[in-house]
Automatic annotation (TrEMBL):
SUPFAM superfamilies: Ribosomal protein S7 (SSF47973). The keyword Transmembrane does not apply. It comes from Radula japonica. One of its GO terms (biological process) is translation. It holds the Pfam family Ribosomal_S7. Keywords: Mitochondrion, Ribonucleoprotein, Ribosomal protein, RNA-binding, rRNA-binding. CDD domains: uS7_plant. This is Ribosomal protein S7. GO terms for molecular function: rRNA binding; structural constituent of ribosome. InterPro entries: Ribosomal_uS7 (IPR000235), Ribosomal_uS7_bac/org-type (IPR005717), Ribosomal_uS7_dom (IPR023798), Ribosomal_uS7_dom_sf (IPR036823), RPS7_plant (IPR034643). Residues 91-223 form the Small ribosomal subunit protein uS7 domain.
Length: 231
């Protein structure tokens, strides 16, 4: 009998468990003498409860997890991203920055998995990298305001934002907006909320885009104080 067949897999362990009970060994499981019998029954019960997982494992259908001391238990789905091959240096740096800003407490593997799952969701809508770049370009703030104290009064002085700072703020705002969408909704994952936010930002919509527009309006209102900028 082939153990790898799903239809035969449960029959093998069920028949083995029936034999175990019919042999009378199960009645003496609690004794010290039959400790092996108790462990055997637990093993058979575990195999019955996880027979589907064991079938897929034996057939090699499940992705391999890292082994050994210090290996992470989070599945890294970067091996399945065939459509992200052949990127230039700037695009790789952009993805790396997204992973680093999304990371919390140094859990880079988990952050990378969230980002790549978001890319998987964006794949049916076209080029993933192009969508991400368009979303960041639509959310990037060109200018901002800085608090400057002048004659005992705090003024909001508008200033030009550096290019690297613009990308960082755009990614941070999209992640914050995705986290706000997920707040109070445990059934929705972060990668799903980030996917929606990137998709809306690429169409000049969403919470992050509104935050950028509000900042530009604030800088426009306080443009009369621009001559106070000394940096």
């Amino acid at each position: 009998m082939n153990l790898l067949e799903k239809s035969n897999f449960s029959c093998v362990f069920r028949s083995s468990l029936d034999w175990f009970h019919s042999s009378g060994l199960s009645e003496r499981v609690g004794t010290k003498r039959n400790r092996f019998c108790r462990e055997t029954e637990n093993f058979y019960a575990l195999c019955l409860s996880h027979r589907k997982y064991l079938c897929y494992t034996l057939e090699g259908l499940l992705p391999s997890r890292p082994r050994g001391h210090g290996a992470s238990t989070t599945y890294n789905c970067s091996d399945n991203l065939g459509y992200i091959r052949g990127l230039n240096g700037k695009q790789k740096q952009l993805i790396k920055k997204l992973v680093h800003i999304c990371m919390i407490d140094g859990k880079k593997t988990r952050s990378r998995a969230i980002v790549y799952k978001t890319f998987h969701r964006l794949a049916p809508h076209g080029d993933v990298i192009k969508l991400l770049v368009n979303a960041i370009e639509n959310v990037k703030p060109i200018c901002g305001v800085k608090k400057v104290r002048i004659s005992g009064i705090t003024r909001l002085v508008p200033s030009i934002t550096a290019t690297n700072r613009q990308e960082t703020l755009a990614i941070r705002w999209m992640l914050e907006s995705a986290a706000k969408r997920r707040m109070g909704k445990k059934s929705i994952s972060l990668d799903q909320c980030l996917y929606v936010e990137i998709l809306e930002a690429s169409q000049k919509m969403g919470i992050a885009r509104k935050k950028r527009d509000d900042l530009h309006k604030l800088a426009e209102v306080n443009r009369s104080f621009s001559h106070y900028r000394w940096w």
